[in-house]
Structures are given as structure tokens and as C-alpha cells.
Amino acid sequence: MASSWRRTVGNVRSFVSNATGGLRGGANLASWVVAGTLAYFLWVKPSRDLKREQEERAAIAASDPYKFVERTRPIGDPQQNGLIYGNKNRTEKPKE
Questions:
Q1: Measuring CA to CA, which residue among 31, 5, 33 is closest to residue 13?
Q2: Which parts of the sequence are annotated with region: Disordered (predicted)?
Q3: Which of 6, 82, 83, 85 has the smallest number of CB atoms closer than 10 Å to its CB?
Q4: Is the pLDDT of residue 32 over 60?
């Protein structure tokens, strides 16, 4: 009877050890801490911040539609900026 739970605990430890790539001790713990920290700052935190920001914008827009103004940069005319081929942003000289 006592050996069955010991075998179960040993099997669980073996499974966890194999699932973590076979690393043992401090190296295993340190690698998981680094991986978890990177995952948090690269995926979890940005998505939470974006969601929170969207909720704040929605709350402001719902409370007073004239108070919230979405700020965007104006898009310039490509012909005036010389982005269309052949127009080198020349200014027309008045004919005399």
C-alpha cells in the first residue's frame, strides 16, 4: 500500500521532469522564470494594456460623445508631396 503512492509520486516527478526538458534543480527553475517573464512582457502585458486602453476610450466616448476626439495624423496629398511619379513638387510660376 505504501509503495503505490510512492510510485505515483515518482511517476509524477518523472513526468514533470521530462515535460520540462530534463533540466533539474536551479537551472530548470531559472529557465522557467526567464521564459515566463519574457512571455508576460511580450504577450500578456501588451494585450492587457491595449484592452484597458480600448475600454477607457469606449467609456469616455459613451459618457460624452463630444468630449472624445480620436487623434490621427492627416494624410498628405501624394501628388503635392511628389509621391506620384513625374511630379517633383514643382511650384507653378505665374506667366506674365
A1: 5
A2: 71-96
A3: 85
A4: yes
Is pLDDT above 90 for 49? yes
Question: CB atoms < 10 A from the CB of 95, how many?
Answer: 4
Enter the C-alpha cell of residue 28.
Answer: 530548470
In three-state secondary structure terms, 72 is coil
Other C-beta atoms closer than 10 Å to the C-beta of 60 total 13
Lookup result for grid cell 507653378: 92
- DSSP letters for the chain: -HHHHHHHHHHHHHHHHHHTTS--HHHHHHHHHHHHHHHIIIIIHHHHHHHHHHHHHHHHHHH-TTT-----PPPPPTTTTT-STT---PPPPPP-
